[in-house]
Amino acid sequence: KIAVDFLGEASAEQTKVDEAGSKLELVWTSSDEKVVTVNDGGEVKAVAAGEAEIKVSANDGSLTDVCKVTVEIPVDGVKAEESLSLQINGEESKNVNAQLLPEGATGATLSYESSDEAVATVDENGVVTAVANGECTITVTATADGQTWTSETTVKVSTAPTGISLSNASGKLYVGNSANISVYTAPVEADAAVASEVQYSSSDESVATVVGTTEGSAGFTVKGVSAGSAVITVKYQGFETEYSVSVTKYVAPTQSSGKTNSSNSSNKGSVATGGSTVSGGNNSVQTNTGTATGGTTTPAPTTPTPAPAPAPTPTPTPTPTPTPTPAPEGGGIGGNINDVIPGGGTTANNGGDAAPPQDAPIAPPPDI
């Protein structure tokens, strides 16, 4: 796109040029051939975006005219950074560096928008500023001649550490043993330490040394080498902390043993040589011909639980024998004293008329 502006009154100058054209040769020149060129016939050609002046003059210098030429490249798109990484407590702002396409294109306006201003904001110049940990998208829009083009930039915000700490500031180890120590960054929102960037050193490698790192983290493993004290220094991104360790040699506990050649008994419990106490009926010293097992205390035997007394079987109440009803008094005894006829007499001899029979009284029921 080329715009030509004549400087001065074009019609008057053009008339003079036309009148002199039949007698004079015209000379055409460009003030910047990187922007625009002109040939001997006055044909102007755009080379790049920018501004230049085209000058025409008669070869005898009697006539001169100048025009201003502006060359613009039409917009065909826009691009910006694909991604940005920002850090709170670090590099908190960056520009998305939006550019019109093709290179050198002009004549479009640019606007910017953040998908989440709680994570990052963007101003009218495309400068993005971190707000909090997270991710968001910055959209760049170019507008020209009623058309729009867009480009997106992914922004990731994290928090840079302001210090480091350890899971333990000090500890104790036996020679040959080891312990795992974790490395933490501060504040809690800060990114975890990168294991490959953490440095470790021991003040005395002959006492304690770092033998490796904890898998999947920035922690480390310290091992006791010999008795003594050492300090493990940890460094990360300019921060430093220490772990103090005391190493001692492990001493196994001693075992007791005993032998006796006599025995003694009494009536109050028993004591076994070798340190074992036995509670029971007699106090006796047991003779051991071997070594007791480490002086362990023999537990007292448990007193057996007495068997419950069986409940007595209740004696059943005897049923009383009913008193027989006596026969009524009557006649004399007959010949057979064993055969008594009720009412008197006997079966062998009638001793006389018996008293008239009476109803026998009914005996009362026995007490039960």
UniProtKB/TrEMBL annotation:
Q: Quote any Pfam family the record assigns.
A: Big_2
Entry's Gene3D superfamilies?
2.60.40.1080
Q: Where is the composition biased (Pro residues)?
A: 301-327, 358-368
Q: Please list the residue ranges that the record marks as compositionally biased, kind Low complexity.
A: 256-300, 336-357
Region entry Disordered, spans: 254-368
Q: Which residues form the BIG2 domain?
A: 1-68, 74-151, 160-246
PANTHER family assigned: NUCLEAR PORE MEMBRANE GLYCOPROTEIN 210 (PTHR23019:SF0), NUCLEAR PORE MEMBRANE GLYCOPROTEIN GP210-RELATED (PTHR23019)
What is the protein name given in its UniProt record? Ig-like domain-containing protein
Question: What is the phylogenetic placement of the source species in the record?
Answer: Bacteria, Bacillati, Bacillota, Clostridia, Eubacteriales
